[in-house]
Design a protein that fits this description.
By secondary structure, the chain is α+β, with helices and mostly antiparallel strands. The protein is built from 6 helices and 7 strands.
Amino acid sequence: MRLFSSIYLLLLTYIIIAIVFWGNSLQKQSERIYSLEVQNLRTAVDSAKSPVEYTRRYSVLEQNLSRRTKQYIGEGSAFLVVIIIGATIVYSSFRRKIILSRQQNNFMLSVTHELKSPIAAIKLNLQTIEKHKLNEERRTGLISKSITEANRLNDLCNNILFASQLEGRQYKATREKFNLSEMAEDAIAEYAGRFPRRFEEDITPGCYIVGDKMMLRIVINNLLENAVKYTPAELPIAIELHQRQNMVALEVKDYGAGIPDSEKKKILNKFYRVGNEESRKSKGTGLGLYIVNKVVLQNRGRIIIKDNTPSGAVFEVLLPLEK
């Protein structure tokens, strides 16, 4: 990218210098023409005998010189502006493609890891059940873990599918009235089964909204998954759901490293993740928060990312309250 930027800047500088050079050459040529025309005028008209005629024709020559100068400056400036605008558009487009290509490469690396992990866990559990005679409690535990990993795999596939549908505008949202409080409690209970003693909840009962029930459940799941991923195992994750005037506010608070202000908007972009996928400790696809943002906007809400105290991040989702 740096090599491309350097070459691109060098070529653009060369083009600008060439335009200025040719503009200067045209101006000098125009001045030479003006000098020849003045000499011809002095030969053709005696300024002493016909001062009025000489002054009139001399004024015309000066006007022609001024007109050509303005023409060269105007056309050269317009051409220069068009080139700069075109060069900026081309550079921005190429830069976006390079960034997207890197993000897609990171996505392929991360999604491979995310798919292999639950598959490997399920396979190991099933092989253990097959090869060993286990008691009922142990057998039930392995089956439960396999179901949990299968649900995790299902969530990942749903994220990939819905991200594709949202990007292609193929998904048509449904609208129905439902209890967001119950949905949040169900989601927390499911994640608490996978990650015991991690969640602190403060849910106001009876918060009804109208929206896409299935997609908003994915929003809650993705926010919880994101919080678990970035919060150290010994620290809690707080989930709050309250009515705020005519809105329902869902807050998921983690105590991780936090998000720099410069990254708060970027992390809502598709595939965007900070750092290199091969060296990053926490894995992911870069689709979770992208889907969260898209779905919240489709349901007439908004998402706000704030700093937590003493560390971490707060993801606040505001949705219209059904009166």
